[in-house]
Protein: Serine hydrolase
Organism: Glycomyces rhizosphaerae
Amino acid sequence: MEMIDEFFEPLGAKAYAHIRDLSDGRGIGFGETEPVILVSVVKLFIAWEFRRQVAEGLIDPAAPVRITAADRLGGTGTAGFHHDSQIAVWDLAALMMEVSDNTAADLVTKQIGCGALRGLPARLGLKDTRLIGSPRMILEDVARDLGIADLEALAHVLDSGSVTTAELRKTSAWDPLRTNVSTPADLTEFLRHVWNGPAAVAADVREWMGRQLTGGRLSRLAPSAVRPFGRSGSLPGWLNEVAVWEWPDGRRHAIAVSARPTRGNFREVELAMSRAALALTEELSAGQ
């Protein structure tokens, strides 16, 4: 799949990608075993583990969770609320997936237990995936790396622009050895597990992915007949998305594309990610 590089080289970007047929497991890729930082794609793992524990009776989905100023990280959903609130943990999981709510991700992770999240890759045989924790844990590491006292101070520093992108890229959040990490091949294998897993669990995770309001990078050039499901993640200089495309003829393709832009041309890189996804589906289908 050297052709994938042709989409990104003119943009000054590097990409890693993989596609897998969800029925028979066949896959092809480009740099598919390279480590990629997950950013908000980790929320897909949190969602799966949460829904599994609900199915096993370990978590009451209606259990109320109190959200206070100390929990809020800023951003979408409850992360940007101005007032304290109380929401059922199930609805927090939905917000985490649908609007990439970081505070919701933290609170759901507390419900499932960080140990359960960290042990998930081993339970599923994902040898190149390492899960460290929720968004708050990653941001706390960034604050320590920058010598900043706490997350509130970090938010002020980031808002003021006093830390450069180059400085941020030297922190743990950008280092595959110190953050949530996987590979494109592991990510499509995980999606195969999600789609083919226990019916009720898989159905709810699919529904959340289908209602994602942020991202949609890979589906921009998808044929209108394709039904896409996705989960995206971003950092300055790093763009991710994993997706499943369901075709009218019954084909189901899991796709993972990660790109590292070096310029401010994120929209062009996102379009290249969609071109790569389409090329991967065409190549896989041609090999049938």
User: Anything to note?
Assistant: Residues 3-286 form a domain with the Beta-lactamase fold (CATH 3.40.710.10). The longest helix spans residues 266-286. The chain is about 45% helix and 20% strand.
